[in-house]
Amino acid sequence: MAxxxxxITKYRRPVNLNxxxxxxxxxxxxVVICVIMYFKTDHIVGYSVMxxxxxxxxxxxxxxxxDEKVVTSQDAGYINYFAREGERVAVRNLIYxxxxxxxxxxxxxxxxSGENSLSESDLAELKTEITSFTNRFDCRxxxxxxxxxxxxxxxxxxxANFNILENADALNDASGTALINYRYAADSGIxxxxxxxxxxxxxxxMKAEYFEEENYEKKYFVNNDLVAAGDPVYKLSQSExxxxxxxxxxxxxxxxxxxxxxxxxxEVRFLxxxxxxxxxxxxxxxxxxxxxxxxxxxxxxxxxxTDRFIDIELLLKEEKGLKIPNTxxxxxxxxxxxxxxxxxxxxxxxxxxxxxxxxxxxxxITKFVETxxxxxxxxxxxxxxTVLRAGNDIIMPESTEKYEVHKTGTLTGVYxxxxxxxxxxxxxxxxxxxxxxVVKSNTxxxxxxxxxxxxxxxxxxxxxxxxx
Length: 468
Known about the structure:
The chain is α+β, with helices and mostly antiparallel strands. The chain has helices at 2-6, 19-40, 103-113, 120-136, 144-163, 165-175, 250-258; strands spanning 46-48, 50-53, 59-65, 68-72, 77-81, 88-89, 94-99, 180-184, 189-192, 194-195, 219-220, 226-227, 232-237, 242-248, 265-270, 276-285, 291-297, 309-314, 320-325, 330-338, 342-345, 350-358, 364-370, 373-376, 380-383, 393-395, 402-404, 408-416, 423-426, 429-432, 436-439, 452-454. Helix 4 (120-136) runs antiparallel to helix 5 (144-163). The longest helix is centred in the first third of the chain and has 22 residues, at 19-40.
C-alpha cells in the first residue's frame, strides 16, 4: 500500500478548443484558397467605350511620271553645261557646249589650279541651295546626300563655266574654225542632267519590280565628260502636268473603286517638303494582279523634277465614331424569324414569341417565351438562340399560322458588361486597322459612348456573369 501511495501519475489536461482559434484557422485557409484561385483564374478586363477616330498609315513610295524628252548630242567631244539643273529654260537658251579637241577641257583643268572667285550673286545661289537641303534633310533618306552633291557640283561648274565662256570664243577665233560647238534648247522646259530608263513609263506599263530601289540605276551627266554623237546629254520636262503612281493593297484599291465619286480627287502630302496638293485618281490592275493608283497633278512638277521616287501620304477622310479594340469583337449566331411572329407579352411586356409545346397528356399548348432582339431588317428579327431551339414551332399572334425555327444568321458585335453579365451588342464597323475599329454610335441594338465592354471577347460566354 505504501508503494501505491508513492507512485506519481502524470495528469493529462483535457483538450480545450478555443473557438477563436478555430475561426481564425478557417478564415486563413479560405484566404489562401482565394488567393490561389485568383492567380489561377483568367481575369475579365473591361474597356470603356469612347468616341474617337482612326489615323491609318497611308504613306506610300510613288514613282513620278512626267513628259520627259531625252536630248542626244549632235557632236563628239568634251561636254560642258551652262544651264542649271532644275531650272526652266527658254527656246534658244544655251544648254551646253561640246569641245571637239579637248583644248577647253585643258584650260578648265588649268584654271582649277589657280585662284577662282565667285560673285556675290553666285555665292547667294549656292547658299540658297545648301540651306534648302539642310532644312528638308532626313537621315532616313541618306541617298538624298548624293543627289545634293551632284546638284552642288553642277551649280559650281555652271558658275565657273560662265567665267571661261569668253575663252571658248577666243579658242574658236584663234583656230579659225568652230572647234567648240554651242548647243541651245530647241524647246522650253525644265532641264535635268540625268536619265534612268523610266522616262517613257506609263500607268499601263507599271510592275511591282519598278518600285524596288535596289535595282534602280540613275546615270548622271557631268561636265568634262567625253560624249559621242547620239549619246544622251540631258532631258527636258515640258509639261507642268505630271503624276505619281503608287502600289496599294487591295482594300484601299477596292475602297477607291467603290467610292470613286467621293475619291475622284485625293489630297496628298509630299513628305519631302510637307506641301499638300490634290491629285486626280486613276486606278489600274496589271496582269499579275498588282493594284496601282495614279495621282495626277497640274503644279509642283519643277519641285520634284529630279526625283523619280517620291514619298507621299494620302490624306483620306477619317471616320469618326466609337473606338473599340479589335480583341473585343466577336461573331455570334442567331435565329432569324419573320417579324409577324414576334409580339409583346409577359408581366413586363417584353418582346417574345408564342412557342408551341405539349403538356403531360400530349396536348399542344401555346406558351409566351421572352426573347431578346439583337438586330432587325425590314421583314425579320434576329433572336437569341439560348431560349429557342432549331425545329421549334412558333405561332403567329391572333392566328393559327406556324413557323418552324431553322434559319440562322451571324452578327458582329461585342459583349456589353454594364449590367454585370456578358450581353451581346451588335456593331457596325466604319473603319479599322490592326488594333482598333471605329463603329457607329447610338444604333438601335448597338453601343453608346461610355458603355463598358469586355476587352478580350474570347474569355467569356454569352450571358456569363462578370467579375472584374
